[in-house]
Amino acid sequence: MNSLLRSKGFIATLLLVPGLIIILGVFILPMFYMLMISLREDMGQGAWTLASYAHLFKDTYYVQILWRTVRLSLYTVCVCLVLGFPVAMYMAQATPKMRGLITFLIISPHLISVVIRNFGWVVILGNNGFINNTLMSLDVISEPLRLLYNELGVVIGLSDSLIVYMVLAISTSLYAVDSSLYKAAGILGATRFKQFFSITLPLSIPGIFAGTTLVFSLAMSSFVTPALMGGTSVKVLPVLAYEQMMASLNWSLGAAIAFLLLGSTIGLVTLFTKLVETKRYKEVFSS
Amino acid sequence: MTKEYDVELHQIRKCFGSTVVVDDFNLQVERGECVTFLGPSGCGKTTTLNMLAGFLEPDGGTLTIKGKPMNGVPSNKRDLGMVFQTYSLFPHMTVAENVAYGLKLRKIPKSEIAARVNKVLELVKLPHLADRYPKQLSGGQRQRIAIARALVTEPSVLLLDEPLSNLDAKLREELREEMKRLQQELKVTTIFVTHDQEEAMYMSDRIVVLDHGRVEQIGTPEEIYQRPASPFVHEFVGKSNRFQVKLAATDEHLWHFATKEGILLQADRHSRQEVTGDAAVAYVRPEHIVIQEVVGDAPPPSMNTVFGIVRLVSFLGSIVEVIVECHGQLITVRTGIAPHLHLVENKFVQLSWDSQHVSAFPAKEA
Amino acid sequence: MIREKKSRRPSVLGIITFFVVLMVISPLLIIIPTSFTSTGVLRFPPQGFSLQWYEKIFDRPEFIESFGFSLQLAIITAVIATVIGTLAALALHKYKPRGSGVISSLLLSPLTVPALIIGIAALLFFTRIGLAGTFLGLLLSHILISVPYVVRLVYTGLSTFDYTLERAASILGANPLRTFWDVTFPLIRPAVLSGCVFAFLTSFDNVTVSLFMISPSTTTLPMAIFNYMQESLTPLVASISSIVILLSLVFIFILERVYGLDRLFGSNSHAH
C-alpha cells in the first residue's frame, strides 16, 4: 500500500548518499578526529588532556597573536563598512542596469584566486609599485612608503577581498526599503541628512549586521592575504596554525589552534549578535 | 449487466495522514461519456483525479481503466491524456514538439507524427503556431495546445483538471464550447474536474457532486439541478432559498411545513427523500417564485404564499433579481422582465410558489 | 527638494562607488600591463615592452605542470561535485525527505567552517587513513568545498521549476528517467551549469585547503604561485597571473550569461 511512498523515500536516500558520504567522510568525521587529537596525547591515542589548550593560554605569545587576529579583523570590518555602505546606498538608488554592472564588477574579481589579487596589490603597494612611484615622481615623498608587509598591507588586502560581502549584504537590505518612505519623510520636512539617520541607517541594520559578521568571520580565518601581504612580521592565528601543522609538525597544538580560531570567531560573533538583537530589533525585523 | 466501462471506481478511499479525503467513491463511466467531478475546494475531486492519473495511489478500493485494474500502475503506462490547470506546456519545446512528445515516446514513425500533429493542431484551429514556443502564446492558445497535446495520442481517457480556471470569463466560455465540440466529435471518454457549476452543467453528460470526500449525488445536469439529493447539492448547485421548518402535518401527497416566523410551505411527497422527525429544511429556487404587487393591507400568510417588502432590485440582463423581506427572512426571487410589474424598493409584494418546486430534507442533527 | 536630492546624492555616492569598484578591480587590471615589462624588476608603471616573461614561463616546468594539473583537478572536481550536488538538491527539493532540514544544513555545513580548518582536519584524518598527499585526498577535499555551492545553486534553480511538467510528461507516457532527461534536466540546466562552473572556479582558485593536501607531485597552480611569491617577486608571476585572469574571465562571463552573478552571491551572503 505504501510502496510508492516508501520507494520515494528510497530514491531520495539514494540521491543523497553520495553527498552525505563526502560531507561525513571528508568533513564531519575529520572534525571530530581533529578534536580528539587536540584533546588526547600521542596523536589521539593516549590519555585525555587539555595540555595543548593550556599551552596556548600560558604563553602570552599566542594570546598576542589571537589579539592581533581579532584586531586586524575588526579594522577590516570598519574599512568594509565605511567604504561599502556608500556603494550599497548608491546601488539602491541606481537603475537596475547600473546595479547589475556594479554587482558584476565587484563580484567577478572574487572569482579569481586570492593569490593573484594579492599579487596585484604587491605591484600597487610595493616599493617600486604604482603608488610609491607616482608619489616619488611627483616629489611628494623622497623615500618609498612602507605600505606592504605590515598590518596596513594585510588590512588593505583583506578589505579588498571581503568588501563584496558587505556591499551585497547592505544593498540587499536597502533594496527592500520602500522608496515612498523617503517621500513621506520629505513631505514631513526631513532634510536629506535627517532622512539618512531616520530611514536609511536604521532600516539597513540587518544588512550591516549580516555583512559585519560575515566579513569578520572570513577575516579571522584568512590565511593567504596575511601570508603574502603581511610577510613574516604580521603573524595571525591561521598562519600560526599552518606553521604548527606543516613546519613544526606539532599536530595537537595545530588542532588546538584551529579550535581556538573557530571558538573565538563563533564566540565573538555570538556576543555581537546578542548585543545587536535587542527586543526591539527582533520585533521590527523578524518577519 | 455486462456493459463495458472505460473507467470504474470501486470503493475508492484515500487518506492524508488521519484525514479521509476521499471515501467510498463508486463510479462507472461509459465509453464516450463526459463525467464531471464538481465540488468546493477540498472536496476530494482533484485527489480522485490524481488517483486516476496515477499521481496518487488509493488507500483502498479498485480502479479500472478499460477493464484493466490500475492500482500500482505508474501514470506513464495508463494511456491517458491530461490537461492541467496551469497548461504545463514544456517551455523548452515548440508547440509542435510539445504535441509530438507523446507520439515520440510511443515510437511512432516521424512522418506519421508530423501528420498527426498537423491534424490535431487543425482540430484546435492553431496550425500556424506550430513553431512558436509556449511563452509566445496567449493563455487561451496555450490551453488549446495543451488540449491538442492530450488528444493527439488518442488516449483511452481524457482527464481535465480545472482547465479553464486560469482564463478570463469570455475566453472561458469560448473554450468550453470548443472543448465540448471536440469531446463530442472525438467521442473521447472524459473526466472533468471543476468547482464551477455552470461549466459542469455545460460540459457533462453526468455530474458527480462531492463534498468532504463523499459523493453527494451522481446524475445528469438536469437531475442535479431539479432533484438535488441532499441539502448540500441544493445549496451548491444553483441559487436556493432555504427555510428552516418544522413538520406540521403529512397527508397522502404532501408534507406540510411551517417556519418559526409563520411561513407555510407544502412539498410534494412523491419520489422525495422521506422526512422523518419534525425538524427539516425546505428549499425553493428563486426562479420558481411568482412575485405580484399587493394593494392594501397584508392578508395573513397562506400555504406557499407570503407577503413581504422589496428590499433590493438588481437588473441582470434577461432577468431581474429581487430580494424581499418576509417575516424577517430575506427571500431571493428571479423573474423575467414583466412590464406590468413595478418593482421598486419598499414596495409591498406577494410571493407564491407551487408545491412541486419545494424540496424538503430532514434537518441534520446539530 | 526631492528633485534636488536626486540630482545631488548620486554624485557624491557615485564617486565613492567609482573608487571602491576601482579598488576592487585594479589589482587585476594592473597585473596585465606589468607582465609586458622588459626589465627584471617588478614595477609599475612597467618599463619597455617585451614578451620575455611569457617566454620564461616555459623555463619553469613547475608552472606548466601545475597549470595542467590544476585544470585537470578542477574539471574532475567540477564534474563529480556537480553530479553529487545536483542529485542531492533534487532529492531535497523534489522528495522533501524526512529530516530534510537537517540534511540540507549538513550538506551546506562546509560553508560555515573556515576553509583553513577544513584543510587541517582533512590532513589529520587523511594521514590516519593513508590518503594524505595523494591525488584522491586532494580531489576529495576539493569536492567537499564545491558540493555545497552546487547544492545551493541547483536547489535555488529548482524553486522555479514546476513539477506538474513532470506529471505532464509522465501522463504522456514518459518513464521517470525519460522525464528527467527530456523535461527536468533541460529546464534546470542553467542552474546545473552554473554550479559546475562555480565548482570549477572554487577548485581552480583554492589555496587554503590545497595547502594541506598537496605533495610535490600534486601541486596546484595557485599553490605554485603562492610558493614562488614567497621566495621571489618577478614579472614572471604577472605573466602567469595574466593567463589565469583571462581564462577565469571566460568562465565568469559564462556564469554571468547563464545565471547572473548577483543571484550567485545573493544567496552566498548567508555563509559564515
Task: Provide a descriptive summary of the structure in words.
The complex is a heterotrimer of chains A (287), B (366) and C (272). Chain A is an all-alpha fold and 287 residues long. Chain A folds into two domains: 1-38, no CATH class; 52-286, MetI-like (MetI-like fold, Orthogonal Bundle). Chain A contains 15 helices and no strands. The longest helix of chain A has 37 residues, at 3-39. With 366 residues, chain B is α+β, with helices and mostly antiparallel strands. Chain B has two domains: 5-232, P-loop containing nucleotide triphosphate hydrolases (Rossmann fold, 3-Layer(aba) Sandwich); 239-362, Nucleic acid-binding proteins (OB fold (Dihydrolipoamide Acetyltransferase, E2P), Beta Barrel), CATH 2.40.50.140. Chain B is 23% helix and 36% strand. In chain B, strand 11 (241-250) and strand 12 (254-259) form a beta hairpin. Chain C is mostly helical. Chain C has a single domain (60-263), classed as MetI-like fold (Orthogonal Bundle). Chain C is globular. The model of chain C is unreliable at 1-9 and 267-272 (pLDDT under 50). Chain C: One of its GO terms (biological process) is transmembrane transport. Chain C: Keywords: Cell inner membrane, Cell membrane, Membrane, Transmembrane, Transmembrane helix, Transport. Chain C: Its main location: membrane. Chain C: It is a multi-pass membrane protein. Chain C: Belongs to the binding-protein-dependent transport system permease family.
What pattern of helices and strands is seen along the backbone of chain B?
EEEHEEEHHHEHEHEEHHEEEEEEEEEE
Distance between the termini of chain A: 41 Å
Residues in β-strands, percent of chain B: 35-45%
Oligomer: heterotrimer
Mean of pLDDT of chain B: 88
Shape of chain A: globular
Structural class of chain A: mainly alpha
Outline of chain B: elongated
Radius of gyration of chain A: 24 Å
Number of helices of chain B: 8
Spatial strand sequence of the major β-sheet of chain B: 6-7-8-3-9-10
Number of strands of chain B: 20
User: In CATH's first tier, which class of the largest domain in chain B applies?
Assistant: Alpha Beta
| Low-confidence regions of chain A | none
**H-E string of chain A:** HHHHHHHHHHHHHHH
The CATH superfamily of the largest domain in chain B is known as P-loop containing nucleotide triphosphate hydrolases
Percent helix of chain B = 10-25%
**How many structurally independent domains of chain B?**
2
CATH topology description of the largest domain in chain B:
Rossmann fold
Average pLDDT number of chain A: 87
Number of strands of chain A: 0
